[in-house]
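job 3f2a | input accepted
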Amino acid sequence: MSKVIPYSRVARQQQLNFLEAKRRQYLDREDHLLRLRKLLFKIEAQMRTSELQQLDLFREIADRFKIPLEFPNLGDRLGLQEIFKAHPLLVALQEFFAGRLSAEECYGKIVAQQKNSFLP
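job 3f2a | predicted structure (120 res):
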C-alpha cells in the first residue's frame, strides 16, 4: 500500500534542500575567495619587495653620482609618482631604462643634473 505524503511536508523538504544547496555554494565560494586572498597577499608582498628593490636601484645611482634624492614616505603612492615625473635624474633614468636614451645621452643628463645640484 502506498503512503500519501502531505504537500506541506514535500514543500518543506524542498525548501530545506534548497537552503542546504545554497549553503554549500556559499561555502565553496568563500573557500575559493580565501585561497584567492592568500594568493593576492603573496603577490602583493612580492610586488612590494620588487618595488623597493627598484627604488634602491635609483637611490644607488643617485648616490654614485652624488645627486641628492629623497623619496617620499613609501606609503605615499601619489608622492612617488610625482617625484618620478618631476626629478630630472629619475626622468632621465626612466627614459634610459625604457630605451629612449642611449647610455651616453643619459650620462650627459646626469652630469647636467650634477652641475645643477651643486649650484648655490
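job 3f2a | The longest helix spans residues 7-64.
job 3f2a | closed
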